[in-house]
C-alpha cells in the first residue's frame, strides 16, 4: 500500500419513522453499488455541520436531526486496483465519522436530481441489518460496525 493518507469524511445513516435507513445507488459505476450518503470534510469544517451539508448536496435535503454517532473514526482501505485511481488518486482510503440521523421530512423531499452531476441515481428505504450485504466488499467492515452502533434506532 503506498504511503497515501486517508481522506477525512462524514457519513449519514438516515432513519425514517419506521426505523429503516436510506440507501442510495451510485450513478458513477457500471455495477450495482449501494451506499449511505457520505462525503469529505472541508478544511476547518465540524463533522456535525458537514454531515448535514452532505445530505443536502447528495440527496437534496437536510431535513434531519442528529440522534447518534459512532464514537470512533472508522477507516477503510481501497482495494489495490483502485489505489491511485479512486478518490482523486490522492488517498489510500477514507477515515470516516458516522452519524445516525432521524429524517424529519417526507419522501418527496429527497431529490437526487438537484445536482447537475448527481452521485446517486436511485434510493430506497432498507433494513439496517441488510446494508453490509448490499455494499462493495471493501466497505463491509464499516457497515457491520454501523449495524452494531445504530441498531437501537431501528425501533420506531
From TrEMBL:
Key words of the record: Hydrolase
Gene3D superfamilies: Nucleoside Triphosphate Pyrophosphohydrolase
Signal peptide positions on this chain: none
Short motif (Nudix box): ranges: 39-60
EC number: 3.6.1.-
Any one GO molecular function term: guanosine-3',5'-bis(diphosphate) 3'-diphosphatase activity
Function recorded in the entry: Accelerates the degradation of transcripts by removing pyrophosphate from the 5'-end of triphosphorylated RNA, leading to a more labile monophosphorylated state that can stimulate subsequent ribonuclease cleavage.
The name this protein goes by in its record: RNA pyrophosphohydrolase
Taxon lineage: Bacteria, Pseudomonadati, Pseudomonadota, Alphaproteobacteria, Acetobacterales
Amino acid at each position: 500500500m503506498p504511503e497515501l493518507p486517508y481522506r477525512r469524511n462524514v457519513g449519514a445513516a438516515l432513519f425514517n419513522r419506521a426505523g429503516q435507513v436510506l440507501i442510495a445507488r451510485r450513478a458513477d459505476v457500471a455495477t450495482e453499488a449501494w451506499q449511505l450518503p457520505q462525503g469529505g470534510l472541508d478544511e476547518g469544517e465540524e463533522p456535525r455541520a458537514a454531515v448535514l451539508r452532505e445530505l443536502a448536496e447528495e440527496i437534496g435535503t437536510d431535513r434531519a436531526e442528529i440522534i447518534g454517532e459512532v464514537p470512533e473514526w472508522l477507516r477503510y482501505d481501497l482495494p489495490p486496483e483502485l489505489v491511485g485511481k479512486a478518490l482523486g488518486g490522492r488517498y489510500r482510503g477514507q477515515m470516516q465519522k458516522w452519524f445516525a440521523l432521524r429524517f424529519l421530512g417526507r419522501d418527496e423531499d429527497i431529490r437526487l436530481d438537484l445536482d447537475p452531476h448527481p452521485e446517486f441515481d436511485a434510493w430506497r428505504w432498507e433494513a439496517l441489518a441488510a446494508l453490509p450485504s448490499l455494499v462493495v466488499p471493501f466497505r463491509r467492515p464499516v457497515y457491520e460496525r454501523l449495524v452494531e452502533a445504530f441498531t437501537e434506532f431501528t425501533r420506531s
